[in-house]
Amino acid sequence: MKDIVVYNTLTRKYEKLETLTPGLVKMYVCGPTVYDHSHIGHARTYVAFDGIKKYLMLRGYQVLHVQNITDIDDKIINKANELGVDWREIVETYSKEYFELMGKLGIRANINPRVTEHIPEIIEFIDDLIKKGYAYVAPSGVYFDVDKYPYYGQLSGIKDKKMWNQETFVKDKKNPYDFALWKCAKPGEPWWESPWCKGRPGWHIECSTMSSKYLGKQFDIHGGARDLIFPHHENEIAQSEARFGVHPWVRYWLHTGYLTIKGEKMSKSLGNIIALKDVLAKYDPKVVRLWLLSAHYRTELNFDWEALERTKTSLERMRMTVSALRRLVEKGSPKGRLSEWEIEAINKAIDLRNSFHEAMSYDFNTPKALASVSEMMKLGNEALEKESYEASLAVLGAIEEADRVFEVFVEESKADVEPFVELLVEVRKELRNRKLWDLADMIRSRLAELGVRLLDKGKETEWRFA
Ligand SMILES: [Zn+2]
């Protein structure tokens, strides 16, 4: 099997993946600030990293995946003030929605740490940075002294100090590019006790603290959307390397490309944000997941309802093929000899499996991997036509393996109810033969309620789990 190669934003090179602990990948992905509905851009990033994780798992790695929740931030406070509610209410509403929607998309991190549950660790982190001379206390809060850290700009490639300016300039900062580690609370803002002032953590320090708490002083992969490279990830690196005396802190930095709407970045000001809940109200999460994975994670992906519609149609077809293959394999048994065509088909299934792995192992090229899956489906349909148990078994194996990454083609195992569905389909066929349409329709609609879809093709009926 080919080595896994990843594109590392830090070195701007493709590099062979070598983990700190053999067989284990420690991965941190920046999670959402929960002040509004999750949007399709969030889904893009989190599905991409879920695909990466599932491929690493398929290759035998254990993956420890940490994805945080930023549950205190200026945006949360502003939203609460705007609506005149407690900030915790905002957090509760949108974090609940986030987990619900991620669950539907098949994304579950091992740990979802929340900022407000890590205040003592954050204070300890900042305190250590002050003691080591990398941070200073000012009346408005504690700031990171960027000039003290020698590698600033390494991730973004921004070397010109004038380009480093971030956050509104506060006059008690030494330099405009220093960033807040701790912000003293203004009247009416939420606060926690600290050695410096009643206040709250800055955004960047949260991720440094929570990642090191769960993954250690160094770990393998840090991920996030491309717009986090500067300043967020640059600042995370500065803080962590300063505190832990390591370089590099994280070996591989992976970033997802933008999700655009009609070629434009989604933004509040353009009013073109597409809420994930609205997309999932119209489309099966599997369709959305497949559509998101149909683009390489680093490329720009343009949102488009028609593309979802097309994905829906092709996924339906593919799932039909897979469930027919499964039924054939479950009922069939080996003949003990193979035809010329079957030998060829089995070899082709092996080749397609290899090309799937080749695509995924080179920087997780899901669109290329999907092209192999489409070929597998074609081969599967040929195997079904020829009613070949052996070829069906080979191609089904390859599809099931690919589906450990995509998680869309194979229906969850409902094997024990299948004979009963078959029986009902048979009974319904008999009812139709006798022109007892109302009873036949009743079976169809009751099965639909139970998540079984019937598709009549002339006198025959195909079915699948919806
Ligand atoms: Zn982060």
How would you portray this structure in words?
With 466 residues, the protein is an alpha/beta fold. It has 3 domains: 5-303, HUPs (Rossmann fold); 306-406, Four Helix Bundle (Hemerythrin (Met), subunit A) (Up-down Bundle), CATH 1.20.120.640; 418-465, no CATH class. It has 14 helices and 15 strands. It has helices at residues 40-58, 74-83, 87-104, 119-131, 203-215, 229-244, 276-282, 285-293, 305-331, 340-361, 366-385, 389-406, 418-433, 437-449; strands at residues 5-8, 13-16, 24-29, 62-67, 135-138, 141-144, 179-184, 199-201, 219-225, 250-256, 259-261, 264-265, 301-303, 452-457, 460-465. It has a 4-stranded parallel beta sheet with strand order 4-3-9-10, with helices on both faces. It has a 4-stranded antiparallel beta sheet with strand order 5-6-7-8. A 3-stranded mixed beta sheet has the order 12-11-13, covered by helices on one side. Helix 4 packs across helix 5 (203-215). 41% of the residues are buried. The mean pLDDT is 95. Residues 30, 207, 232 line the site of zinc ion (ZN).
Please specify the SSE layout and strand pairing.
Blueprint: E1 5-8, E2 13-16, E3 24-29, H1 40-58, E4 62-67, H2 74-83, H3 87-104, H4 119-131, E5 135-138, E6 141-144, E7 179-184, E8 199-201, H5 203-215, E9 219-225, H6 229-244, E10 250-256, E11 259-261, E12 264-265, H7 276-282, H8 285-293, E13 301-303, H9 305-331, H10 340-361, H11 366-385, H12 389-406, H13 418-433, H14 437-449, E14 452-457, E15 460-465
Parallel strand pairs: 3-4, 3-9, 9-10, 11-13
Antiparallel strand pairs: 1-2, 5-6, 6-7, 7-8, 11-12, 14-15
The structure holds zinc ion.
Family: Belongs to the class-I aminoacyl-tRNA synthetase family.
Protein name: Cysteine--tRNA ligase
Pfam families: DALR_2, tRNA-synt_1e
